[in-house]
Structures are given as structure tokens and as C-alpha cells.
Amino acid sequence: MAKIIFHNAQVVTMDENLPSAQAVLVEDGKIIQVGTNEEILALKDAETVVRDLAGKTLLPGFIDPHSHFTAVAYSLLMVNAKPSPSGRCDTKEALLEEFKKNYEENMDAWAKGDWLMAMGYDPSVFPDQQHITRHDLDTISTEVPISCIHASGHMSVLNTKALQMLGYWGDFEVPEGGTVEMLPDGTPHGLVTEMAYMDPAVQAKTQPPSFERVLGAIGKASNLYASYGLTTAQDGRVTNGELQLLNYGGQMGFIQIDVVGLADPGIAEEVLVKGQKAGPYTNHTRIGGYKLFLDGSPQGKTAWLSKPYYEVPDGQSADYCGFPIYPDEEVVKAAKLCLENDWQLNVHCNGDAACEQLIRCYTQAIEETGLKKDLRPVMVHCQTVRDDQLDRMAEIGMVASFFLDHIHYWGDYHYTSVLGHDRGMHISPIRAALDRGINYTMHQDSPVVNPNALFAVHNAVNRITPAGRVLGEDQKLTAYEALKAITINGAYQIFEEDSKGSITAGKLADLVILDSNPLTVDGDKIKDIVVLETIKEGKTIYTA
Hints:
six-stranded mixed sheet; 24 strands
């Protein structure tokens, strides 16, 4: 590969030893030298490709520390049930119109037994904030099974046909850690939550889009991530199905960014290699850790809190706090397994009771095994983590990965219904994590929302809701601090800080070109910055 020189740029290196520069020399997919225009242009030869960036901004490629890459591919084949600005389903009527349109356009798929599925459903934006029911979905079809997956991914509304196919009809048992809501007449409402929908045995009874259709969407998902400047992404829960998609998608060249998969407990011992923290990529994919869920979602009111929800869901008692998924002994067992095998543990925790369970159980596992290693366990989401819990996370080297976009998408709902004023003002306390020396990252949990890393930066800097509330003035970050979360800190989380995360000689030439500099534009304009080009190991994989 010929040498490439990028010059006349605002180079934000994210390397504290050389925070800014004007030019970068790249060769064979790696960064060779960083410096002034004069220094770098002096290194060109007859074969060098010289690119004048005309004052545009060059940053290291962004790193997504938590999302679901294959689920994004699936979502591209589903009904877009998201509200604005990511979709148009701001009312029940608009949602059902989207279902009807997709149903009529894909009759061949239903004839083959595919389920009609939607992703991104969010009733918190509906005028009455009420869930749709199986009866609503039955108006689309009573013969084709239909699943309308909530924005959190932790619950779904099913039509009658789907409920019957999953066994939730007549007399039935609900998997531990899940619920099946019932109507007053004793029949299912249609809403199933947590393990009642997410349990692998339940999922095995569904027939989502065919493997061939999803494989074709893998390339589109890779391009979607790249369009937001991401050069490394995550697949946050990999079972055998996702593993096949990643393997085939990589082999066939559909995946052009790096994807780190987290193994579901069901396959972890088969696919994780003892002692391999940041193992090599094969066709841009690798398995990088063990994934566990401890609770649900705050906007779905299934997150496990230590104190009751500000407004408890209909039908729940006044002391309803959500619920756990696993007892302590199961969490300790998983933590011990990871410690004994040098595996990184990544754990979904939204509610502070779930955060407490993770800290308590991981600490117990350290004490019982006598093993305190640099495994960088990750608390994923941390929506309501408390300051006293952050103190203990710092002591055991736990990474905090925050979902800052909650403030934009659900901040007003958290403030008025989920958490109330006091807890709502302390949601996603990323400044508190930084102040304690905790490695902090930011994610979008895609396909919950689009993998727009710069929008996370915007929300960390501004923390403003659609109604104009600032949730946590004291938790705001500077633009530079926020950029660290999606660059060098993200690389640290996945044990790749030696090869990614900054524009430093010797690291991979994973780069992104922006039309404006996040460090110099007004804070409220960061969301408007355009990704012009994304470069993976010296090769352009996306242009606007």
C-alpha cells in the first residue's frame, strides 16, 4: 500500500503527548508519523498519495463500546417502529400504519414462515403512554406471528398467533426473570418482558428474517456504523446464531470495521480462550468477553432500582422497584469463571440495585478466588449508579460505560415518570466517574438508537432534554473529555489502547474526517457536525 499523507488538517490526536498536529503519514495501514505540514510533507516520495484536507478535522476512528451489531443488521430488515427523529411512530396509529405497509410489501416472506417483526417501539412518546396490545397487532394479521420489540430490546408486544407459538396461551409457565402481562379477562395482554422474551429457548421458537437476508444486511450494518465515524464496534450478546453471521459476514468481506463480540453464557466456555483479553481479529471479528444481564430498562420500567419508581406501572404495588434476573450465587459464579480464565465480564446494569449486585458479587468473587487482575470488568449503561457505588467501582478497576443518549430520548420521561427530580438529575453520572479516575466510555446500545457517536458527545456536553431541561449540570463534560470516551477510553475498555484510540505513530490508521472541529464549535452545534470520511487501516470505507 502506497504511503498516504494527510496534511493541512486540524488533527485532534487524542494523544496527550502530542494533542494537536497538522499532518499524518500513513503506510501499510499504520500511522508512521504525526507532525507539522512541513515535517510530514518532507517524507513524501514519488509513490506517496498526498491529500490536502483544507482545514478539515482529522480524529482517530471512533470506538463503540457497546451495541449489538448483528441486531442492527436484523433491524434493517424490520419495521422501523422508532419515534422521531429516528422514525415516524409517534402514535399508535402511525405504528400500525408502518406494520401494515411492511406486511403488504413482504407477502413472500410470510408465506415462508417468517415472523413480521418491528424494532424500536417506544410507547413513552404516545399521547397516553400506553402499550399497544395483541388485539392491535391482530388487526394486521391473525395468521402471521408478529413481534413489536421495545426500544430497550428487553420486552416485546406479540399478536395472538405469536403468543400461541411461544406457548403463552392457556395454562403456561413463565421463565424465571420475565413476565407475561395479562388482561382482566385472564388472557395475555401481548406484552412479554425480559427472559419471557429474551430466553434463548423462547427465541428459538421465533423465525426472524432468513439467514440469507440477514447476511446481506450485515454489509449495510457495517456501512451504517462507518457512516458515523466508527471503525470498531461491538456485538453485545453473541449466541451461536450471531457467531455464524459474524463469521460468514467477515469471510465474505461484508464487514469492513472491527467487531468485538461478547459471548452469551450459553456459548462462553466454547468460544472464549483462556487468558486472551484482546485476541486477534479474523476477518475483522473476534470474541472479546462474557456478557450478562442483571436487569431491564428504565424507560420500560423493568430496571431494578433500590427505591420505587416515581410513577409505578399500572397494576404494580406502590413499592415496585423492577426486578432482578439472576440470584447472587449465579452472578458470583459467572464472576469467578471470568477471573479464573482471565475473561472480561461485561454486565448490563441500569438500576442502582443491579449496579449494587454486580459490585457486590464481583467483589465477593475476588475475595473468594484471591484473584485481583486487570480484567477491566464493564458495567454497561450505569443509568442510576450512585456515587458510593462509583467509589467501589474505582477500587476494583471497573469500567463504566454510559448511555448518554437517554437524556435526549427519554430524559423528560425519566424526570416526570421513571425517576423523578432527584434521581433524574443524577442519571448517567459520567463526571462523577471521571472525577474518581474510572475509565468511562459512551455508547448508543444500537439498534436501540442509531450508532451516532458524535451525538453521544453532544449529549455529554449539553445534557439537555427535548423539553429544555438540563439533567445534571454538574455532570457535564468538556468536548475533549467526551471525545476521550469514544476514542482512547473506548480502546482501553477492549484492551486495544496500544493499537487504537489515538493518532499516534505505530497505531492502526483508523481515522475519521469531520467537517468541523468538536473542540472549537459551539457546544450546542456538536450534533450538527458531519462525518465526511471514515478510514480503516488506511483504506476509505465510507464517504459522505
